[in-house]
Please model this.
Amino acid sequence: MSLGYLGFDNPAESLSYTDLDGQTAFISRGANVAFEKGLFVVVSTGNSGTSTSHPYISAPADADGAFSIGSVTATEQLSNFSSIGPTFDNRLKPNVVAQGSSTALITENGALVSGSGTSYSAPLISGAIACLIQAYPNVTPLQIKNTVEQSADNFMTPNNQFGYGIPDFGAVFQILSTIQLEGLELNHYIDGSKQFVIDLPQNHPAVKARLYNLMGQCVWNGMLENEKPLDLNSFNSGIYIFHIEDMNRSIKVVF
Model:
């Protein structure tokens, strides 16, 4: 969402800094409702960073349900125009930052140009978030939000200029892979000829696993492939535990 509201033609409808508490502005309340309904709301913080009267974010960037994006340069310095936090009730904003100074973009005529503003940094994050949602549809918006923030380079020392910093979406992709797998039900069965078959998620055709007996001894290790039978006839009948290492999950099997 590349927009922000503060001043209106009718001054009576304008917002002041005291209104930026995430609960007052109508659009901020809307962002909160959207997030609660399962939508991931990415917004620009605004371009008021050089203002002497109001260098702060605008609505709906003040909402808890809004993932607010500031701007940095290609050398990872804060863009001077990037609006800053905190919210009026002293919550951290922006959430993260991305390049919004001299950002490459393509015009409607197909020309490659550059532009500056948080209206350019927010779409970079939006595109990456959209890819994560497509890759991991069972992960919640809150899990994505928290993981993106935790991946950022300023996570340990956040501030109201950079927020948590510049995210590492490669790391986020790997972490969400584990989170999604931990929440999935793993269907499996053993047929009458002692063939073990497991049904894995679509984007995980195989997982690394180990098979343990009740003495805690590893009797097999290798790759379990989706819906490909694993012959268990070489093992004595009894109770065994499959430990799926890629998912940190265990499955009890009896044959």
Remarks:
- The longest strand covers residues 206-213.
